[in-house]
Amino acid sequence: MPAELLLFIAPVLLLGLLLLRDLPIFGLLACLILARAAFDGPFNLQVAGNPLSGVLGILILGLGIASGIRGWRGFIPMLALGGVLFVSSQSALLFDADAISEYIRLMSVIAVFVIVANLRNRPSPRAVVTVIQLTALISAVFSLIQFATGGGLVVDGVLRATGTMAHPNSAALLYCMAISASVIAYFELGHRRLDLVVAAVLFVALLSTGSVGGIVALAAMLCAYILLSPRVAMNVRIGVPVLAAAGVIGFLLSPLGAERVSEFVSLDLSGASGERNSLEWRIGRWQDVLTYWEQSPIVGVGYGASAGGALLNGYPPHNEYVRAIVELGLLGIVVIAILIVATLRALRRVARTGEAAGALATLGIAMLGGMLVNAIAENTFMYSVPGYLLALTIASALWRPPRSTSGDSLQSMKTYERKSHFA
């Protein structure tokens, strides 16, 4: 069955399921995200010639469309943004026939936000953290097995664990998000020792990926938490930097970490010595792809033009800012900057309220901050599973009750959020 046909069938089927009054939408979404993490790798099961990961993405998109039709919250902006990006991606087809696949992938990430925004009740902070932890642990178990048995993916001559993810870097970002969620949950949601145990396991899995960008992203997430969140106590401001410093030192002392760091000891930005390591390779690719920006500096060459590597002989740019300005132009960069600033401001407002969602807002700030740092040298926002988890966290933090909800119902929701671990 072609993916395009599934794109139309899935919303119809899921809309019918949504009409069942007691269908646990949040649980269904969580299952789809967990399954997506399990089949992110390059050796996915095939369904009628299409990777199962792609089918799961289409199902998430279908659930988002059905939820939007049912609740209408965020549906019109989703359609408007989808329309603009679709027109942009069509111009990108001149470069790469896979641009439409990248378009569908991004829309499935946006669909996660729409699904959560239209839930009848806000998912509890513990429920969201648990989904993030389980999603990462699914992959981390395989990373640890690869680390112990000498498996994984060889990147530039270095053997690095990938878990169930397609690349060590995407696995590393996933583990960073779950570590941050575990640390923040420990300080914000009741000091459960299990959260620290999960964080420790995931940190070992992070080390097994050998991702320098992952370590930097983790440090950025934890720093964003203590610097930007108004909810941080003094003991946390001291404890979290100590944990971050211990993590960086642990990575530097590990054999794989030392091998990766040694690649960047003698960096030559002139290009005279060739591209001797991954950072010099990245800088060379940024210079190459920016030449395409000159063709259309205002609106870009089209969304998805470089996603499949059409502009760089099979390799994405490994810099989301370079990719954005080439694909969407200066206009796109301005719009993205406005959205990011607005999102951070909205999260900070929620974090200051002291409501149950404050912990989720704090986590959203940390995750988004770390991903923006990671995006300097990685294909950060092309990683589907981290994108789903970011959308899930932000939407849960910013969730608002339906307008028709009465005062008594609102009070019952607040009581529910205080007492419940799962929504």
Automatic annotation (TrEMBL):
The chain crosses the membrane at residues 6-35, 47-69, 75-95, 102-119, 131-159, 171-190, 196-228, 240-258, 321-344, 356-375, 381-399. It comes from the Bacteria. Keywords: Ligase, Membrane, Transmembrane, Transmembrane helix. Residues 403-414 have a biased composition (Polar residues). GO terms for cellular component: membrane. It is found in: Membrane. The keyword Transmembrane applies. Its main location: membrane. Residues 198-336 form the O-antigen ligase-related domain. It is a multi-pass membrane protein. The keyword Ligase applies. PANTHER family: LIPOPOLYSACCHARIDE BIOSYNTHESIS PROTEIN PA4999-RELATED, TEICHURONIC ACID BIOSYNTHESIS PROTEIN TUAE. This is O-antigen ligase family protein.
